[in-house]
Amino acid sequence: MAKYSAAVDQGTTSTRFMIFDHEGKVVGVDQKEHEQIFPKAGWVEHDATEIWTRTKEVISGALKKSNVSPKDIAAIGVTNQRETTVVWDKATGKPVYNAIVWQDTRTDLICNELSKDGGQDRFRTKVGLPLATYFSGPKIKWILDNVSGVRAKAEKGEVLFGNIDSWVIWNLTGGPKGGVHVTDVSNASRTMLMNLETLDWDADMLKIMGIPRAMLPTIKPSSSVYGYASGGELEGIPVAGDLGDQQAALFGQTCFSAGEAKNTYGTGCFMLLNTGTKPVQSKNGLLTTLGYKIGNEPAVYCLEGSIAITGALVQWLRDNLKMIEKSSDIEPLARTVDDNGGIYFVPAFSGLFAPYWKSDARGVIVGMTRFINRGHIARAALEATAFQTREVLDAMNKDSGVDLTALKVDGGMVYDELLMQFQSDILGVPVVRPQVAETTALGAAYAAGLAVGFWKNVEDLRSNWAKDKEWHPKMDAALRDKEYKGWKKAVTRAFDWVE
C-alpha cells in the first residue's frame, strides 16, 4: 500500500522535489537553484538542460534525505513556472535555444504588431489574455522566426514545444525513448493558443501566430495518468498530475468553491479567484484562466491578477545592490525604520502586469530626500508587494461582484511577518497563512494522488488544510487611503518609459 504522493516543483529560480504523506505533511524535500541568464536588457533565459539535470538531482536528494522508498510513492505530479517556453529536438532531446522565461520582454514588437489590428484585447474573449510579452505564444513565434532551421523542423513535427511542465514530463517518461508529450488545461491556457470554451488549440490563433500544430503537446486534465516514469529512480511510478504553479497553489490551498481565493508570494505575486465552471471575462485588467480539471469532471475557471516582480525585488536588492546578504535579511532591515519615509518603489522591471499591462513601464523610486536610508528602501520594497496585491484585489472585487472577506496566502514571502501585517492593513481584511505554506508542490501532489485513488475526492484534501497564523488590519482607514493614494500616484511615474 503506497504511503506518499510526490511532486516536482520547477520554479523560476529553483527546482524542488517534495514528498507528502496522506495528511498533506512534508516528509521529504530537496531543492537546487539554477542559473538566471540575462543576454541583454529585458531578456531572461534558462538552460532547460540544466533544469532537467537539477530535477534528477533533487529527486535523488529528497529520496535519500527522507529514506523514502520509491515503491511507497503512489504517484508524481509536476508543477512549473508558467509561460516559460522550451522548444526541443524530438530525436535528440536537446533544446534548440535557451528557455525564454515568462519575465522576458523581447516579444514586445511581435505583440505590438499583432495589436495594431484590434488592440491589446484583440483575442481576450477567445483566450482570456491580453496581448503581452508574458505569454508563451509570442515566445514560440520568436524562436521560429529567429533560430535557423527550426520552423521547417516544426512543420514536420521534428521539434516539440512545451512550457516547462511538458519538458519535465517528457523527460521523466523516457525523453527521446518514448516520452509523452502532454500539457494540462492550466498551462495550455497561458499560451494564448488555447480556446477557453473548447479547451483545445485554436486553429485561428495558430494561424495568426504562425505556429504549426505538429509541435504542440496534447492538452489533458490536470489530474490524470499521463504515463509512467522511465529510466530513473522513480521507474514505473505513474506521472499523474500537471498544474501551472499558481493553479497548483490554488489546488493546494483547497480553493475548490467559487469565490475562494489565494495569493502566492514568490518571484512574482499571483492572486487567483475560483469563478466556477464558466469563464468570467475581466473588464479590469485581470486574466481569465483555467484553474484545473480533475479527470472527466468539468473544468474550473479562475480570474487571475499577475504581478511580475515581488520576491524578485528582494533578490535584486541582495544580488545587484548587495544591500543584504540573504533574502531573509530584508525584514530586520525594514524594521529599523517606522515607515517608508515618504518613498514608494514601483518595481516595473519587466513592465507592469495586472491590472495595467504596460510593457513600456520601468522601475522607479519616487519621493527621495536626504532623509532616506537603506531601511526605508527595504521597507518600500516590501510594501510594493502589498500595494500591488491591493490593486489586483480591487480589480477582482469589481469583476466578480463579490468582496473578498479574507485572503489565503502562501509562498516564500509569507514568513515575513512585517509584510503580512502590512498586507492585512492595506487590504483591510484578514490574511491567513496555512500550516503547509509550500502549497504549490502540495497541489501537484494532490492532483497526482487523486488520479490514482491515493485520495478519494477533494473533501479528503479539504480536511488536510489547517491554519498556521492570521493577521488582522490595525491601520487607521484614513492612513490606509493616504498610503494607497500615494502608491497610485507613484505607479503613474513608471508609465511610458521605453520609447
Q: How would you characterize the overall build of this protein?
A:
This protein has helices at residues 48-66, 108-115, 124-127, 136-146, 150-155, 164-172, 185-188, 203-209, 245-252, 311-319, 330-334, 374-400, 417-427, 439-451, 458-462, 477-492, and strands at residues 4-10, 14-20, 26-33, 45-46, 73-80, 85-89, 99-100, 159-163, 182-184, 218-220, 223-228, 238-244, 261-265, 269-276, 287-292, 300-307, 344-346, 364-366, 407-410, 431-434, 467-471. The model has no long low-confidence stretch (mean pLDDT 93). The chain is an alpha/beta fold. The radius of gyration is 21 Å and the shape is globular. The protein has a 7-stranded mixed β-sheet with strand order 15-16-14-13-19-20-21. The longest helix is centred in the last third of the chain and has 27 residues, at 374-400. It is built from 16 helices and 21 strands. The N and C termini lie far apart (62 Å). Strand 2 (14-20) and strand 3 form a beta hairpin. 55% of the residues are buried.
